[in-house]
Amino acid sequence: MFGLTALELARMQFGFTVSFHIIFPAITIGLASYLVVLEGLWLLKKDEVYRDLYRFWSAIFAVNFAMGVVSGLVMAYEFGTNWSFFSAFAGPITGPLLAYEVLTAFFLEAGFLGVALFGRNKVGPGLHFFATAMVALGTLISATWILASNSWMQTPQGFEIVDGRVVPVDWLKVIFNPSFPYRLAHMTIAAFLSTALFVGAAGAWHLMRGNDNPRVRKMYSMAMWMVLIAAPIQIVVGDAHGLNTLEHQPAKIAAMEGHWRNEPGAGVPLILFGLPDMEKEETRYAIEIPRLGSLVLTHSLDGQFKGLSEFDAKDRPNSLVLFWSFRIMVGLGMLMLLLGVVGLLLRWKRRLFSHRLFLRFATLMGPSGLIALLAGWYTTEIGRQPWVVYGVMRTEDAVSNHSALALSATLVVFVVVYLTVFGLGISYMLKLVGKGPAEGQRHDGASERKTMRPARPLSAAPDDVDPIPG
Amino acid sequence: MGIDLPLIWAIIIGVGLMMYVVMDGFDLGIGILFPFVRDREERDTMINSVAPVWDGNETWLVLGGAAMLAAFPVAYSVILSALYLPLIFMLVGLIWRGVAFEFRFKADEGHKAFWDKAFAWGSYIATFCQGIALGSFINGFKVENGAYSGGLLDWLTPFSVFTGLGLLAAYALLGATWLVMKTEGKLQADMRRIGKPIVLVLFVVIVAVSLWTPLAHEAIARRWFALPNMVFFSPVPILVMLSTIALSGTLANGSHALPFVLTLTLLFLGYTGLAISMWPNIVPPAMSIWDAASPPQSLGFALVGALFIIPFILAYTTWSYYVFRGKVKAGEGYH
Question: Could you report the predicted ipTM of this complex, rounded to two decimals?
């Protein structure tokens, strides 16, 4: 299809399905912790606003959680269908980590999700709060396992290769590999930030439409505080993550910066914009700030780091893609910082809830967290290329022997089904958001049920909202 | 090491797969039966009879995939890449019907018919693909140097298409007998009526597969028909026979739970027969569970988590079914 090779199609297919998938867990992680905060504040302050917000966001959480489970089902099989040589080679390490993730997720679903979603009238407030907290903890533990597995592929250690496959030697080293703490922190904060921006946009949207009430104000205000706090922390963590990458995956950094070669004794400029050209080994139309690259990456004015030309041509990741995916992420991060700071100023001037331009800005920033998160993942994953396990196994050796025709056909099926299914799911979620948090609302019919029967996450969402738009 | 870790994992995955077949089998069966029930209210009752438990049923499928990768990475990579197309379509079918199932509740009246069709189609596709996968598994896979070396369409054989259709019958019968157990009145009577011919079809399928496999695979023939094996294994076909007769009888005589229990017995016997034919291979015809297993460091590490958490999942599953016992009544708004 379009002259793409089987390897490229396999990567596109995996990239497409995992991109759809990651959106849901990211919001799940963020909303789960948000629900803990809401319920904690309600228990502490006994203000009904928090309880109403808990009800409102827990229905949206349920829909989101269900879509994460559905899209995750595919991931559990795609490693084998599309990357069979990778699975056979690295399965002894990535397999157990993935199994732990799945076990954690199901343990959480089996044990606490039901109580959190449906048990409000059945267990005491303390126990219910405990269940909510356990759900949030479970999402974080799940993320930990997945990121341990992913980070091990980026910075592998604690293994040896016996008979053509990896054998774990030290599980602690495998899990706590060099990039793991940075990636875990960066991703967790990204999930919190994405959720805050989403919640904040929902609040701003309602305020713009004149739906001004204490609940909308509260969620909008909480979200803006969260953005103000989390955005700068994320920038610091991201910087540390970058330095870690420079240490362990210098080619990735060179590609992200469009940096090809060093002049003797000179500092490296920071290229703001440009078009890295993989063939000519230069970044065309570069607009640069002298020495800033050195300052950011070596924290000194004339420090140097390896340029992409210093790596074998067959070991270079695609600079054009990385340069831009990285800048999209950083650019959106800066806008988030701006949103947080301006929000603080407006709060101080008592115009946070009424400044129309700012409300519009906050609404537009709603998806920015998720876009930045995806751009960040593209940067780190495409930056790992041409390796699937960095320095150990090449992606071209990992891919199953499927023809381009087979991969094209299944890719089309995935695109059509995913856009339909998750498009409707997201539209349904946005419809729920559009209804806004009601006072003492009763739309969570599920919790009013008389019998203590098990229920699925999606039955926590209202039945009077049709998923099909229009 | 005295403990046979690959064996323990093979048992865990084998039991998990059986759990999946049994539990997702009857709710896929509900979808397969949908075209035969036209009444809106009856369809609602059918859906309600599985609503509280269906998503837990798919738990076992995800767990199975992850456990295979952890414990038998070579088998996972060979089987999944060999069955690329049927598995992708199975997953797409499962997603499609799962979402249709949920959105059916939320949809306006005008959109319900669309989701009904989507639910049925997804169920047919997922089941047929699973049956194809089963047939290809029995046929075995071409393996060179520990990797799949066959073609894209090796799974497409008369036998696998036959098992695909056979599994449709098996799940339909699970669904029908589940409904006999869970419902009353006209729907229950309809299911008794629909169930009878399916019993016959399924019996023919089981007999055909039981004859076809030893004829096509010498090793399987030797496994079954050599002495003394033949004596040890003879209860399996005899019990299949008895269960089928009992099943026809109980469908007719007004029992509620027995038809479902007997269908489960029938499937369990089929599964046992399969295990006897395949043992100890996880990638037929020649790769055993020990050949395909992860190193002990991986098996042991993952086993700690599995042994700790699987009991919780089992307990929760049992509890879910326990509180959901009894009949589902028409018009009972519960889901």
Answer: 0.90
